[in-house]
Amino acid sequence: TAPRFLADYRPADFTINTVNLTIHLDDTCSQVVSELTLERKGDNQQALQLNGEHLTLVSLVLDNQALSKEQYQINDTLLIIPASSLPDRSHFTLIITTEINPQENTALEGLFKSGDAFCTQCEAEGFRRISYYLDRPDVMATFTTKVIADKSLYPYLLSNGNKVASGELSNNKHFVTWHDPFPKPCYLFALVAGDFDLLEDSFTTASGREVALEIFVDKGNLVKAEHAMTSLQKSMAWDEETFGLEYDLDIYMIVAVDFFNMGAMENKGLNVFNSKFVLADSHCATDSDYFNIEAVIAHEYFHNWTGNRVTCRDWFQLSLKEGLTVFRDQQFSAQMHSSAVTRIQNVRLLRSQQFAEDAGPMAHPIRPEKVLEMNNFYTLTVYEKGSEVIRMLHTLIGVDKFRQGMDLYFSRFDGMAVTCDDFINAMSDASGKDLAQFKLWYSQSGTPVVKAQEMFDSQTNIYTLTLRQQSPITKNQQNPQALHIPVKVELISENNDEPSQSELLELTQTEQSWQFNGFTSKPTLAMLADFSAPVKLIFDQDNTSLLTIMKQADNSFCRWDAGQKLLMSYLHQLTFDIDYTVPTELINAINDMLNSGGDRAFIAEQLSLPSFDEAASLMIDIDPIALTNAITTLAIFIARGTQQQLLTSYKACQQDDLKENAVANRALKNVCLAYLSLLPEYQYLVTQQYQQATNNDDILQENMTDSLAALTCSSKNNLDDLNEQLEHFENKWQQTTLVMDKWFALNASVVSEDVFAQLDKLLEHPQFSLKNPNRARSLISAFAMNNPKYFHCQTGRGYQFLANQIAKLNEINPQVASRLITPLIQYKSFAPAHQKLMKAELVKLQALTNLSNDLKEKLDAALN
Ligand code: DPP
Ligand code: ZN
């Protein structure tokens, strides 16, 4: 297959107006009858080329006439009906009958089995595995879907839209027919059949329409769907209040399945979810699980407008719906919870993962220009950086103009498939802001670097700030232009009678200066308030200034970020010299934080060291072992120095545990525990907490957040109780799939040489299977991402382990394989000895026979 280019986009020669599907479900041979009404656009004489993969064609009927084999051609990816076989009329019908094998579909694209249920995943290009079709998002049709299956095995037969007919058939079969009145691209098609428990509720929209809400889960899991239901109702209310957007069908269904490549999918009226983003109760789910469920439910719900009502013209425009919808779900979460902590967590994800992607071989603009396998572009760049770009726009034009821009966007484009430019133009027209330069964010890749330089003239009392920007120069980006970057700054005054000043600066040139008056002595600069732009900041600030910002900045993000910079500077020193003596001012600062009496969730973030990935994204030629040692050394230094206060805070949080703000209490408590568990004299606390949270006479006291936090301490420090705890946990939870995923991840994160033997054993565990993406990730990804010390060990064994699993997954599920390869293709940021070992594994993978496009695209980029 050849790559596709944004520049080559052409509208389709044909469109499809209606689709009538009849699907007879069968494990190994499902039959799909697809009746299309087609329309030739203009007077072109082109052949009709329909996409199709892994299909067995049974028959083709054009305007009631069966086509003979001579009248069409077929290959691995296309069905071609030449112009000579097509009628002269512009409108005609085609009935395509195909057969597929859902049971063998381990790629989980198209129609597949998840346990006993049938389900589909059609984004990006999965519908072509169900039937021959114009599988592109700018072809929008009205779907009617009749699903036929065994009545006892599949009592629920679901598809998009409204149920319009149902009935009994012979041989214990039944059918249900669904009609979706909204024309849609086929990537939003969905079908589910199975036996479920059903949680029902409703939502009354602002205009008074009653919407039935239905969540389908595996039998026995009904109570675990309640949080998802509440989250859905909150999301629906929020979108009405914030953007005036109401839901548009009479029914909204969510189905939770265990086998799913992604997090969830926004199919019109019938979302299919990875069960991990639906099921929760306090025993089996952590606080972050709860948070993520709410966020993903919101995300998929928000897609109903940003994605479904207005969709993408082509897949290069993916960020049109994803960046915008991530921004919307982040705003929602910030409003439902602490906006400061939510923002910090967004930034942590961006800096730890997206910055690395943007610096690696797969770097691409948020609107990519060249794609071999579309599934490779559901990336942190398109999603998270895409959201940052929308956020910058929001910052530049303000909340009211942003809303007007959204209104204009919907009034112009409802029901259409459009581009990122269309969106920006609507924003520009509504706000009156010139966004021509801003659009460069859509076409340039790499994380821009912004350098700050300050000068205070004590003669004139003028403070001058100079900013310089530079986007990375790479093979695919020889001549990057200056971007339009919103830089929010705060100048913190030293003198009580001179107020601090906050400003939004618009950096549009390569170099630009601003002057400030009103200070008689040099103020302290806090840069990038709220992280106003996704850039790397280079600004040498001494520790005194950082400590001032930590204490005095008005902006909570700046206070947190200054602390992280301070910590990062010590980590840097320690990676070069493990005997470096960290100044005790850090101990005072941390004691101050613990004593501050502020929001405990925020303090927990302040206390959390930069992760391995966050630190790595700010370094070059990383020696991963030196970095993991530096992190541990710094953590022990902090633990030793602040142990009294840590213990006091730990106990205070424990006491308040079941009261209000339980989530914030647990967050701080468990950060304290993580530090204390580094010191042998406090390790009894881990044992105690594990017992209380996991093995309590009073079951109501049990709590997964605390249980997992204790286990994580045990596994990170390889504590004596670890094996006993893991065994106990396994016995307790062996029936609960999602908790067993946590157990596999814990095992893979044990910081000990023994982890390799353990990994080999776990691959043979009766509950391990590479066919289940969650399970595969819980072992393999957890090892590669959470266990840097052994993943990067000098023998190369960690790299080998990952590559071996990727090779197996290449045959089973290319999408999952391709995601797991991320840490290996970023080899160039590591020191030469590691680079060599990592590269050797990539070379081996490149030589695989049957290499999927997914892996090929990444390997070629990494090794060229
Ligand atoms: N469109 C889906 C989502 O992001 C893909 N997983 O919600
Ligand atoms: Zn999405």
TrEMBL record:
Domain Peptidase M1 membrane alanine aminopeptidase: 228-438
Pfam family, one: Peptidase_M1
Reported cofactor(s): Zn(2+)
Catalysed transformations (reactions): Release of an N-terminal amino acid, Xaa-|-Yaa- from a peptide, amide or arylamide. Xaa is preferably Ala, but may be most amino acids including Pro (slow action). When a terminal hydrophobic residue is followed by a prolyl residue, the two may be released as an intact Xaa-Pro dipeptide
Domain Aminopeptidase N-like N-terminal: residue ranges: 35-188
Peptidase M1 alanyl aminopeptidase Ig-like fold domain residues: 446-538
A single GO molecular function term of this UniProt record: alanyl aminopeptidase activity
Record EC number: 3.4.11.2
Residue ranges of domain Peptidase M1 alanyl aminopeptidase C-terminal in the record: 545-863
PANTHER family xref list: PUROMYCIN-SENSITIVE AMINOPEPTIDASE
Assigned protein family: Belongs to the peptidase M1 family.
Summary of the function given for this chain in its UniProt record: Aminopeptidase N is involved in the degradation of intracellular peptides generated by protein breakdown during normal growth as well as in response to nutrient starvation.
Stated name of the protein: Aminopeptidase N
Native source species: Colwellia demingiae
Lineage, uppermost ranks: Bacteria, Pseudomonadati, Pseudomonadota, Gammaproteobacteria, Alteromonadales
